[in-house]
Amino acid sequence: MKRLYYRIDKCLGCRSCEIACAVAHAGEETLFCAIKQKVLPRKKVYFFEGKNFPLSCLHCKEHPCVDACMAGALVYDKEKGLVIHNEERCVGCWICVMVCPYGAIRPDINRKIPVRCDKCKNKDEPACVKACPTTAILWQEEDFLLEVKK
Amino acid sequence: MDKESKRSIDIAVQKVLKKAEEENIKTVWDRFEEQLPQCGFSQLGLCCTVCNMGPCRIDPFGEGAQTGICGADSDTIAARNLARKVAAGASAHSDHGRDVAHTLFLLAEGKAHDYQILDKNKLKELAKELEINLDLPEEKIVKEVAWRILMEFGKQQDQLIFIKRAPEKRQNLWKKLGISPRGVDREIVETLHTTNMGVDNDYKNLIKSALKCSLSDGWGGSMIATDLQDIILGSPQPIRGKVNLGVLKEDFVNIVVHGHEPILSEMAVKAAKDPELVKLAKEKGAQGINLAGICCTANEVLMRHGIPVAGNFLHQELAIITGAVEVMMVDVQCIMPALKDVASCFHTKLITTNPKARFPGVEHIEFEPQKAYEVAKKIIRLGVENFSYRNKDRVNIPKQQMDLVAGFTKEIVFRILGGRYRATYRPLNEAIISGRLRGIAGIVGCNNPKQTHDYFHTTLAKELIKNDILVLQTGCSAIASAKEGLLIPEAAKEYAGKGLQEICEAVGIPAVLHLGSCVDNSRILTAASEIIAEGGLGEDISDLPAAGAAPEWMSEKAITIGFYFVASGVYTVFGASPFAVLGSKNVSSYLTKELEELVGARFDFCDDPFKMAKLMIEHIDKKRELLKLKPLMYQ
Amino acid sequence: MKQFVIAGNSAAGISAVEAIRTKDKESKIIVISDEDYPSYCRCLISYYLAGEVGEDKLLYRPENFYKDYNIELILNKKVLRVDPKKNRVILEDKTQLNFDYLLIATGASPKFPDIAGIKKRGVFGFRTIKDVKDIEKILPYTKTACVLGGGLIGLKVAYALHRRNIETKIIIKSRQVLSQILDFEAARFVQKKLEENGIEIIFGQDAVEIIGDGDTKAIKLESGKIIGCSLVIVGKGIIPNIDLVKETNIKFNEGIISNEYMQTNIPNIYTAGDVCESFDITLGTYAINALWPVAIEQGKVAGLNMAGESFKYEGSLGMNSLEFFGLAVVSLGMYRIKENDTSFEELKICDEKRNIYKKLILKNNLLVGGILIGDIRNSGLYLRLIKEKVDVSAIKEKLLAENFSYPVIKDLLKKEKEKIYV
Predict the structure, then answer these.
(1) Whole-number Cα distances in Å, C337 to C120, C183, C219, C254, C330
(2) CB contact under 8 A, C354 and B24
(3) Distance between CA atoms of B43 and B579, rounded to whole angstroms?
(4) Do A97 and C43 touch (CB under 8 A)?
(5) Closest C-alpha to C152, from C70, C274, C250
């Protein structure tokens, strides 16, 4: 099960990942379309004390958003390590935004729907990984961290 | 430390920022934070948007692409980006110079009857320099001067006339290097040409082109602006004034002039005293009309008329947020687009005047030299009429204001040192030679919300004068020191070293001298040349115990100024963040090391005012040593 | 093989069942509901009434959920009484069911004011699908509706009725809407939004009588004013459904009292959800937080412990997220402090132009609550700071800054479950 990790010393804050994310989730997957459809990136690069921190839904093993969803619109797929958001069922109550311990679910107020990383589930790897010009975004199996430590 | 004091050292600014926060008005500092993180590729100069195969980026960590699609590497991309900025900066000052020359031409043709020649001596000197027959009637001379100067912009061959003002050794060096500038427009165009896709790929050649282009600004466009403004509007004389937001008056109609070109604001000064308008202001319940300035327009009207200065670059929104400004009249350069939104939170009318600089949805009253006074009067009248719409409950002007003395020019400043009757640079040169004065430093440039506002300017100025270095300032940097009280002669006692203090006391000048707006950096170049001509301190500007700094820069113009300073032989330190070139080791090292071998001066980048002072002092001491000057008198 | 009986088929009950099944796939689980539907999204019934969500979307879990989880579901039967001594429950049809472990998650019922005519046709609470269906029946004949109470339920119903083109008036005794989750200033934002969209709100008044002969025709207010309406919906709070324990030694106050394991004073009887009182971490006392996510949390804790774990509940707190006509609102923990109480500190942004209001309440440098209106980004971070009792003195001025985000609090957190940065 692959996950996204970030090497903060490599992030230059260019926000290419944000743009790639919006494009990947736009109807025609073009920048023009993303802008026209006002697609919000599901990922955001934050800045704090001189460093840049990309952040998107972590698909946590404990997932307070799934628990809290009063519309039953969120499901955790254990095998894929993925919180699946069923937009059809979502009523835009923002409860998932309120309980996300990372602030990684972002409210799209205009569309009345929360946006969150879906690991680009239809692609071989998330668009942000491809878009990062400095390989600051890693798409790795979970045990990769253990190897890093070694 | 609270948020406000991290943003600025100026108490007045802190107070207005608190007000802004209470009233939910965003300022430049808030917008800066919203921009974070800023793109690292752009910061490093590694993003190229020159052609439509791109945009391209070079991976500074060496893992991704190392060249753009065309094959340009980090050196070419960084140098190309930098050269473009230099050309842009040069274009601004130079176009300003052109507009002044155009006004002089209209004046000669009798079409700009609101203006006259106020400094006839300077006109004659310039005519002499241009080898114009002085026996001609004045209007003929004026016309000839104006025409010849206008021709400087489009000159296709030969070098610019003012190049001759530089020490001979420097002129020869420029010729040898092939960077002696021809027509101002030509150099800007040529630099832009070389940065096109697939033209100049050699970073050294690109930087050389940028150096040449910058010289066409420093010894061309900017110098033209300064000289012709002095001729038309009068050369500044030492004058007292006041500075900071406290100069806005609660019971007066407040008109703020902001931008860079003094041609219109000069008329605003006159119109603010127009009895008809003053009477109208009183009818509206005000005590009168109070004119104040921001940025370099402020410096221009301060230098010539002692008009109070409301603040520097980062004050522009704050002046409006006091709630007491009826009209902010703007011309060109450094005018934040945000002013429109800030003004819309108040009764303040923002008025654009220059056809080159407009805001969507903002009232535009176009300035024409032919109808200068009429236009100025119309704008001031709008302000007076707007006084009734001021919401008194929202007015909150900070009390802070400071006295200052400004109005120094290359003609005045150093001659003063010799006393009014011995108008010569000799005493200044002697002071340096004897070791009473360690050297001279220029501190110039903008403000930048990346840094604590004014902290760098004032800390650096204090450090330098403490070490017996006479500080010359222009632009927003000068306003920073003025607010800190460094521009009053008495301040020398508190801050200056003993040698500098003695000089200041003897002559009655401050240890920090205000030389004018940012186009007036040209005054520093000519002063340096005169010092060399006076003798005893070497043969070239690069021999002088002198250094320059732009500690809080933000504008492209600042880069160009840095370039012409270095190209003229002045070691120059930049604060804030380096020009976006760090992504190229070669370009960085070329600017900070190898340039020295080429032009006898180089850049340094430093983000600490104390270290910056140390670098400049070390440089000055090194130059003193090379000149074998006497040891410092007091150490 | 044990036998688990779950009284209640909503958030707490389902959450408990799911938790039990993570530990125990074998034992028998019986779920009892007094409603006629499989578990549904109770909070969505106002959307259902509004016509924004179809009945098919109300199902909280897929149709085959009970089968997949091997659960016996008893619908349409109320649990009349618990018999702790004999470890059994008695249903209203006298059926007796034995249990090894019991979860009381019977929820709550609307509180009806004691006024004349309250039993008339056309007066409803708003809690169940049945309520919606009953309301639906008289909607075709309804021009005007009155909603009693300006709390969450009241406003959501008013919004739904408004969407169905019913002229809707909200009658509120206090001087603000949502007085249980917002301060006065924040409530003004919501009020403005509702009024702008044509919902009338009458403050400082209570209904004193429902007028009509059998069918509701009008209501009478304290002021004597009479408002003609054929539909009245009561949103004046709830009462926990505790009748089943009243004649037992199970301790209750307003709700059934639970310890930190969601256990009642009887070791094999647990409680969770709207029916129970649990420790509130921001109030520091026992309280009922009748909220969907709280019920889920509590059900999960109860379920795990019933299945043999020893899992401590960190405590509940009031937390609400809602949305009216595009205005997002989040309220967390403490939302108002007493005037002149200097032991608290308030951080606040109030920007009427952008429709943004943010307030945080701190005590001894710990965040204890807050309100976010218009801009609710990162509200989960505030919730986390409250729950984890993080000392925020170092980041106080950043808390309401435009670019407040996870990295700002990252290094202040004691533990981090997920690895993000390498």
Answers:
(1) 40, 9, 35, 24, 17
(2) yes
(3) 8
(4) no
(5) C274
Subunit contact A12:B40, Cβ cutoff 8 A: yes
- Dmax over CA atoms of chain A, in Å, equals 47
Domains of chain C with CATH codes: 3-109+238-306 (3.50.50.60), 123-234 (3.50.50.60), 326-410 (3.30.390.30)
For residues A17 and A131, the answer to whether their CB atoms sit within 8 Å is yes
Domains, chain B, ranges and CATH? 3-57 (no CATH), 74-233 (1.20.1270.30), 245-394 (3.40.50.2030), 409-627 (3.40.50.2030)
Is-contact C392 C355, C-beta < 8 A?
no
Q: Does C349 touch chain B (CB under 8 A)?
A: yes
Please choose, from the candidates A125, A143, A146, the residue with its C-alpha nearest in 3D space to the C-alpha of residue A135: A125
Q: Does B59 touch chain A (CB under 8 A)?
A: yes
Neighbours of C389 (CB within 10 A): 14
- Distances from the Cα of C281 to the Cα of A64, C195, C238, C264, C331, angstroms: 18, 35, 22, 19, 15
Distance CA C137, CA B533 (A): 102
Other Cβ atoms within 10 Å of C267 Cβ, number: 10
pLDDT in tens, C126-169: 999 999 999 999 999 999 999 999 999 999 999 999 999 999 99
How many angstroms separate the CA of residue A26 from the nearest CA in chain C? 22
In 3D space, the residue among B69, B57, C374 whose CA is nearest the CA of residue A19 turns out to be B57
Identify the three-state secondary structure at position B311.
strand
Q: Residue C175 in contact with residue C152, Cβ under 8 Å?
A: no
C403:B33 CB<8 A: yes
This prediction has a pTM of 0.83
Nearest CA to CA, how far is C408 from chain A (Å)? Answer: 6
CA distance C372 to chain B (A): 16
- Classify residue B593 by its DSSP letter: I
Q: Which of C15, C57, C410 sits opposite A89 (nearest CB)?
A: C57
Q: Which token pair is B473?
A: 């300032």
Tell me how far apart the alpha carbons of residues C397 and C287 are, in angstroms, rounded to a whole number.
32
Chain A nearest C-alpha distance from C95 (Å) = 32
Q: Determine how many CB atoms are found less than 10 A away from the CB of residue C67.
A: 10
**The two three-digit tokens of residue C267, written as one number:** 């070791």
Question: Which residues in chain A are contacts of B74 at CB distance < 8 A?
Answer: none
Q: Mind listing the pLDDT tens digit for each residue in B146-199?
A: 999 999 999 988 899 999 999 999 999 999 999 999 999 999 999 999 999 999
Residue type present at position C246: K
Q: Are the CB atoms for B177 and B208 separated by under 8 Å?
A: yes
Distances (CA, A) of C311 to A62, B323, C165, C303, C306: 14, 60, 48, 10, 10
Report which secondary-structure segment, H or E, holds C292. Answer: helix C292-306
Measured between beta carbons, which residues in chain C are less than 8 angstroms from residue B2?
A: 397
The pLDDT of residue C1 is 85
Query: Over 60: is that where the pLDDT of B420 sits?
Result: no
Instruction: In whole angstroms, give the CA distance from residue B478 to residue B258.
Output: 16
Cis, peptide link before residue B55, omega less than 30° from 0: yes
Chains sharing 3 or more CB pairs under 8 A with chain A: B, C
Domains of chain A: residue spans and CATH: 2-145 (3.30.70.20)
Question: Which amino acid appears at position B256 of this protein?
Answer: V
Amino acid letter at B403? Answer: D
Check C43, C146, C229, C350 and give the catalytic one: C43
Q: Is the ipTM reported for this complex over the cut 0.90?
A: yes
CB–CB contact B24 C403 (8 Å): no
Handedness of CA C371, C375, C379, C382 (dihedral sign): negative
Please confirm, yes or no, whether C229 is among the known catalytic residues. Answer: no
Ramachandran angles phi, psi of B103, nearest 5°: -60, -40
Q: What is the pLDDT of residues B562-575, one digit of tens each?
A: 999 999 999 999 99
